[in-house]
Give the backbone structure.
Amino acid sequence: MDLEKETKRTDLNAKFFGIDTLLLMENAGKCVAEECKNFDKILIFCGTGNNGGDGLCAARHLLAEGKEILIQSLKGNRTYENQKNFDILKNFADIKVIRDSSEIEKLKEEILKFNPDVIVDALIGVGSKGKLREPTKSLINLANELHCYKIAVDIPTGDDEIKFNADKVISFEIGKTNDAIIKSIGIPKKIERMCGVGDFLTALKEYKGDEHKGYFGKTLVIGGSRDYIGAPYLTAKASQKFNDLTYIATPKFVQRRIFDPTLIFLPCEDEEYLQNLVADYAKFDCIAIGNGISLKASKELISNVVEKSKKVVIDAEALKLINPEILNKHCIITPHLGEFKALFGVDLYNENTENKAKVVQNFAEKYNTTIVLKGKTDIVAIHERTKFNEKDCIRLTVGGTGDVLAGIIAGIYAQNDEPFESVCAGTFLNGLAGEILFKKNENFDAIQLVDAIPEAIKFCLNF
């Protein structure tokens, strides 16, 4: 588990569902203060992020209890929540701001004179990456030299060479170390099982400024037939919103009816139905197969794609052409109730959401794959975990919107190696785009849903 991503995902989803991050920090600070209640003289090292904000908030609660507090805070750009608590605390407490390591000796004299009973490490938390930099490294060295009790907030600050020697670690909602004491800060357990903004934002590759063509993925969409011309196009256009290069392979009958210079068409000798497509599937980061494909298509084609692809999303009629035994951990399948029954032989129409989820997870575990069962509430499952995506848009039953969802998931999966993360992100964004569009136009179609994807992405990025 990526602790930084999981923490960020949880915090963002809590905010999305209405729980303010300042409230979460207030609760976290109170938890830290509670663990310090048996000490009289407390030294708190605070960073500039939300971990440091927890420390600042704890200091205020401890001052309210009449404790003696020495607060040492790093200088730098603070998060909004950290700055808010810093500005409050400085009104009635002397916060020592540390600028560089040259101040450590003077700081050491002050700390020895204070003679703390306990040190609280709220410097970095799960955001720590690589080697510690100064003055943080010197602060950890100093803290470890002192003979007093030591408490770390979320996770001890450190690297491969040096780490805060915590006697106790306090983590929030999820344990960040094996020996951590886990405290609740008011996030309902249900939120941990809901897809939200955090799932989408933590699933995307980070933009660094030195990217090259292909950095954000190359996707191939395989589908289409004489019977369904538009489906693979919708899938390709949706995936294109996330990738650098989008390829499409369709029968000639379909290809002649699609003109789009932004898509790259693979040569295909099949005239009306896909039977004999030949391609180097391994060169694509993700392949979406099945959208618009016909039951007249080759079963061997789909099996070959699954076997030779790095990652694959299987949707629509392809789900009726495969044996579930070919599925593996690199596969994502996206059935609705009818396709789920066709693939696994189980009818879930009359089951409630929780019962559906148990069945879906059982099949995900059995075939070591990732499943999203589409519906009013999407159910996303892997062998050990299930999440739900609740949508509030009835127009997502319109023909073609499932093809758009497959394209969104494939586009995200092309730049993220975790299928479960990709599906949670994709189902959420698809639902969000639908909700945004529904408020403007109750009678939108699948093409309009594709066009609404950038607005949904912008909403998430600005959240």
